[in-house]
């Protein structure tokens, strides 16, 4: 028994190593029989990219994958794997950085052993914004045409993209071509960001992406003087109305093709809104020039809108008050009420009632007799007396009757004393 035990423990490290090696060789044999290689095209995705950074490198595809599959029944293709690179900690100031590729199988039973490429070189850059001028490139004008300077709705645009590219941007070009027939240009044109040499730059965006370009093209240019017509829209605040609208200058010179000028009778301004205003307005307003028509001296005028309170009339029934009366005379009227029509602003009239003003007939200095006297009204500032009906009344003045003497009281006899 001791001899058997001694044999088993003799050189036991060598014997244990032999057993482990056998197991590894067996496992390697089994694994090698289930390891396969697949030609694929799995796009490499960038993950963890900071929002303020942009990837300048085009990531390649993973083209070959070695994997271990436990059974022969699994069918694999490019969609069975996902390849990624982690961009979270890449230094954007470095020129190029080598970064590891990670490939995973969608099916958890598949174990990825090796793949190509295992690393890729990438470059990140900071995203910046920069303002550049907008320039119109209209090329060479066809012979026989009078092409005027382009009019732009905007003068600058913002270029957004990698700093290394944006810093090379010189301008944003709106590229148009003049038609030999002499057709005016009035449309939105896409903007192209270019460098100093006029070469388009890629990997950048431009805001806005287009701009309105207007170019007048004349084939038979003529000039005319036209009246300026201010266009007023809206209504003033309650209680006000437009008293007058003046424009300076009243007439402007314009130029255009003869056939366009024939149908033109005036030059309108852009609409001027007076909605809700309660005071006079003086504004510099642009001209609404038809396509192909240009102003010879400036494209804006001065417009003045003058307001006034809205006036109206109201009629009230009011009692007559006599003024200048004398205490020793008696007065009688042919009528004690008249109809009074008062004019003024709507706001003032709304605050008015028959008790807030007086209608009077002045009899000062009049003696006994009958008189036809005018009716007057005492009104607040801003109100006017439009009419009184009747306009005058008959006043009869008489002497006061002597006062009726009071009857003398009869004395009451005192009672006689008792005998």
- What is the rounded Rg? 52 Å
Strand content: over 45%
Quick one: how many beta strands? 34
Distance N to C terminus: 187 Å
Q: In terms of structural class, how would the helical and strand content be classed?
A: mainly beta
Helix content: 10-25%
Instruction: Average the pLDDT over all residues and give the rounded result.
Output: 85
Low-confidence stretches: none
Count of runs of 4 or more consecutive helical residues:
5
Q: Rough shape? A: elongated
Tell me about the biggest sheet? 8 strands, mixed
List keywords for this structure.
419 residues, mainly beta, eight-stranded mixed β-sheet, 49% strand, five-stranded mixed β-sheet, elongated, single chain, 5 helices
Folded structure, characterized:
The protein has helices spanning 2-9, 12-34, 163-166, 258-262, 346-350, and strands at residues 35-47, 53-55, 61-68, 81-86, 97-100, 102-105, 111-116, 119-122, 124-137, 146-147, 151-152, 156-162, 171-175, 185-194, 205-207, 210-215, 217-218, 221-229, 232-233, 240-248, 251-257, 266-268, 272-273, 281-286, 294-295, 300-309, 311-323, 329-333, 337-345, 358-362, 369-374, 376-378, 384-389, 392-399. 11% of the residues lie in helices and 49% in strands. It has 419 residues and is mainly beta.
């Amino acid at each position: 028994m001791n001899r058997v035990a001694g044999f088993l423990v003799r050189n036991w490290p060598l014997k244990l190593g032999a057993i482990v090696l056998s197991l590894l060789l067996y496992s390697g044999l089994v694994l090698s029989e289930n390891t396969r290689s697949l030609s694929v095209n799995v796009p490499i995705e960038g993950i963890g990219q900071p929002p303020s950074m942009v990837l300048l490198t085009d990531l390649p595809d993973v083209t070959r994958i070695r994997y271990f599959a436990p059974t022969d029944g699994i069918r694999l293709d490019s969609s069975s794997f996902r390849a990624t690179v982690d961009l979270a900690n890449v230094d954007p100031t470095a020129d190029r950085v080598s970064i590891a590729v990670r490939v995973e199988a969608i099916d958890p039973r598949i174990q990825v052993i090796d793949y190509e490429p295992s690393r890729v070189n990438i470059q990140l850059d900071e995203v910046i914004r920069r303002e550049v001028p907008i320039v119109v490139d209209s090329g060479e004008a066809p012979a026989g045409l009078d092409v005027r300077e382009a009019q732009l709705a905007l003068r600058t645009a913002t270029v957004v993209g990698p700093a290394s590219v944006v810093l090379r941007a010189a301008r944003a070009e709106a590229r148009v071509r003049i038609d030999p027939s002499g057709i005016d240009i009035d449309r939105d044109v896409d903007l192209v960001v270019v460098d100093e040499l006029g070469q388009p730059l890629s990997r950048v965006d431009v805001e806005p992406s287009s701009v309105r370009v207007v170019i007048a093209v004349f084939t038979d240019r003529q000039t005319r003087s036209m009246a300026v017509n201010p266009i007023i829209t809206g209504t003033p605040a309650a209680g006000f109305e437009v008293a007058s609208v003046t424009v300076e200058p009243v007439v402007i010179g314009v130029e255009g093709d003869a056939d366009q000028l024939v149908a033109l009778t005036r030059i309108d301004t852009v609409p001027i809104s007076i909605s809700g205003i309660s005071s006079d307005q003086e504004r510099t307003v642009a001209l609404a020039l038809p396509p192909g028509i240009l102003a010879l001296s400036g494209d804006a005028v001065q417009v003045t809108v003058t307001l006034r309170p809205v006036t109206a009339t109201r009629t009230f029934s009011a009692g007559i008050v006599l003024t200048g009366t004398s205490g020793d005379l008696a007065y009688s009227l042919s009528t004690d009420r008249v109809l009074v029509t008062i004019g003024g602003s709507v706001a003032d009239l709304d605050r008015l009632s028959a008790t807030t003003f007086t209608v009077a007939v002045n009899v000062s200095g009049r003696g006994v007799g009958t008189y036809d006297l005018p009716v007057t009204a005492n009104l607040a500032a801003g109100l006017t007396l439009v009419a009184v009906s009747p306009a005058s009344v008959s006043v009869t003045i008489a002497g006061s009757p002597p006062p009726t003497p009071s009857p003398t009281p009869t004395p009451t006899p005192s009672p006689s004393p008792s005998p």
